[in-house]
């Protein structure tokens, strides 16, 4: 009976050590990045870039739909205003797989929002 208790205690301690060591290693590792898309220490803050679009209700969804469908009629003026205020340095990191989309959306938004800076 005593040896079963010792083995059970040993297994329990081993299990706890394995769990805590795994968590500790996970905290020390840096998250993986895709080379060229989001380099670590990038000067462009993606949260800042996306925040103006997230502040307009439904804007990110409208932009995502237009990316996948190629139709821009559902992009509203408020969303266009938010998109036109984005820094152009954000575009390559926000839309890394489609570099032609941001200038296209900018031109369409310039038509939707008549007095935008993109038209001047």
TrEMBL record:
InterPro entries cross-referenced by the UniProt entry: Prolamin-like
GO biological process: double fertilization forming a zygote and endosperm; regulation of double fertilization forming a zygote and endosperm; regulation of protein localization to cell surface
Pfam families per the UniProt record, alphabetical: Prolamin_like
Signal sequence interval, chain numbering: 1-26
Keywords attached to this entry: Signal
Residues in Prolamin-like domain copies: 48-109
A cellular-component GO term for this protein: vesicle
Protein name, entry field: Predicted protein
Natural source organism: Arabidopsis lyrata subsp. lyrata (Lyre-leaved rock-cress)
């Amino acid at each position: 009976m005593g040896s079963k208790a010792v083995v059970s205690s040993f297994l329990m301690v081993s299990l706890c050590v394995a769990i805590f060591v795994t968590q500790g290693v996970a905290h020390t590792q840096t998250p993986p990045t895709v080379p060229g898309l989001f380099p670590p220490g990038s000067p462009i803050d993606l949260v800042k870039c996306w925040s103006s679009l997230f502040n307009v209700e439904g804007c990110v969804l409208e932009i995502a739909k237009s990316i996948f469908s190629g139709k821009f009629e559902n992009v509203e003026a408020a969303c266009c205003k938010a998109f036109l205020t984005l820094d152009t340095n954000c575009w390559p990191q926000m839309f890394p797989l489609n570099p032609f989309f941001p200038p296209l959306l900018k031109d369409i938004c310039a038509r939707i929002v008549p007095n935008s800076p993109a038209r001047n």
